[in-house]
Write a structure and sequence with these properties.
Length: 483
Amino acid sequence: MGYVDEEKWKSLQHIRSCGRNELTQISKAGFLWKRSSMLRRWLRRWYVVKEGMITYSYSPQDAALYNCEKALDAAVHFASKATSKPLKRTTPEGDLQDMFGLVVKDRNGKSVELYTPSCNELEEWVEVLSKASSSAQFVTNLYDLNMDNPLGCGAFATVVKGKRVADGQVYAVKIISRSAFLECADMLNKEINILHMVGKHRNVVTLKEVLHAPSRVYMVFDFCDGGELVDRVTTACPMSERAAAGIIRQLCEALAHLHDQGVAHMDIKPENIVFTSREKDSPIKLIDFSLATFFHAPTEPGGTPEFVAPEIVRDPDGIAKSGVGGEVDMWAVGVMLYFLLSGKTPFDDKSVTRVLENVMQGYWQWRGRRWSVISDRAKHLVRMLLQPKPMLRLTARQVLEHDWILSRDQLPDRPAAVPARGSPQREPVVRLCAFRLVGSEFHVLDPCSPFLVTFSSGGCNASHPLSPKQLSWQVERPHGVAG
């Protein structure tokens, strides 16, 4: 058995050996409002419920760095809707907004009154706080987890299908061992805060809830059973322009939502786009926020070799200090569009090393005869996204206003015929793995072997075997997995 398979087998055995039932506590994070006691001003803060306690920060970024203060001194004991009528808040635009209140009390009798402008959010917060105030619940009382047939396995994480006991709704549940969660606490804490902040969007996977247990952490996501985008594209059968425009439009809707909130995904690729169903016109959802980061905040550079932006490869130290903006995602959208229309990526080469060198130089061309039958407007959009200088790339909202996207209904709904040289072969697209910066070098997982290729500004070095720690987040996701 190969190294990777052995680690997956150990992970699955560990999940089973811990027993299928353990006590869990729910956690949640999001923005709530409070009125200052002195000036009665409205204060917006980022509140986190975890392990029975409620804390707040000035922003999700602060929460990700553990810069939190207690909203109440003791554990939550009681939560309910405020009995008074909704209060009025004047928005920056001068409009009056209803603010719905909830009262939270701790075990010492101290209380705090918090507000939200949404009735639905009010219901969610009351439900979560009520669960947090009660005794911990066994996971089997909440979800019926199918651990005998996992959707995906990694070295320290397993994804299974889970049916919620309360209503029978099916979700994808990522189960992470407590040791791995603690080892990668900063990364996972940031991912969870970002997913909570992003909230609900039709083209972004929703983190429903997070459950903490003594030996495991459960992250509950939307269940999408339509498969990954990468499974619907081959070199011999790329997408029609109309279908590709539909995918890019939905992807940019998702990215506009993220970028408006100051979040970069940093790992846009076909494997991270899934269909909600198996229908031909199924909506898509953007998944896997493990590399996501806040705009221009210090971050570990990373991405997937054929989709990573050149500025990340050229100056990893600068990116580590100053972070990134939405431009890195828009470069990846350009690569994605090229891929959808041709079945290949513009920087594809014989090795990961060559791929990264091509990306760093910004070298690409219209490869293959298929581009001779692709419209000029589609190629114009590709060029406007694959700009080596980040500031010259189109934003997500500018892409949504591009002529090619706006004229989607008039685009061909079948790939244009290209005279073939011999019999065309339906070649599957190679699945790509992400990399992270380790020290001063990029460590890239070669999909064909359990070895790392290290890459830095000084060039490429010898390969090194993967360690269990570096493998821990390489989770395979067959259809249905949204984490």
